Amino acid sequence: DPTQKHFMVLYRGRVFSVDIFDSKGALTSLDRDSWASAREELLEAGNAEKLRLIDGALFTLCLDDLKSEDPSRLIQSLLIGDSATNRWFDKSFQLIVDGNGQATINFEHSWGDGVAVLRLMEESYKWVS
Fold it and tell me: Which end of the chain is more exposed for a tag (fewer CB within 10 A), N or C?
């Protein structure tokens, strides 16, 4: 059904519904003034509830298609994705999984210390290993 805007996640027998929105992530890579204007246009167009959902999310999970072993390409993808459409830079924490299943993070430092995020990732890695 082309009107559906969600996908399902199954984890330990529990079912989660995840809504999918239009690819507007590139907007957050604009300079702050341009993004503020674009955000206002989205709000005026009736997207306040969608933006509230995005703003209220604990973090962003970015699922990328890139399958590369080239470190330069992987670093570029980590920072901005292919065209910034698969990143939401207003979120303080983004978990990024590439097409090979490798996971990494991109986070904005003003809210907290990098050591705390490193500890979170170390403990997460131990838990899944």
Answer: N
Report the mean per-residue pLDDT for the chain: 80
Catalytic residue among 12, 14, 32, 109: 109
**63 Cβ contact list (under 8 Å, min separation 6):** 86, 97
User: What is the per-residue pLDDT for 114?
Assistant: 85
Q: What are the tens digits of pLDDT across the range 12-50?
A: 555 567 776 665 567 888 899 999 998 999 899 998 988
What per-residue confidence (pLDDT) applies to 6?
66
- Per the annotation, the verdict on 6 as an active-site residue is no
**Burial status of residue 88 (CB atoms within 10 A of its CB: 0-12, 13-18, 19 or more):** buried
Q: Give the residue ranges of DSSP H helices in 3-113.
A: 32-44, 48-56, 71-80
Measured over the CA atoms of residue 14, residue 20, residue 26 and residue 28, the dihedral's sign is negative
- If phi > 0 it is left, if psi is from -120 to 50 it is alpha, else beta; for residue 125 that is alpha
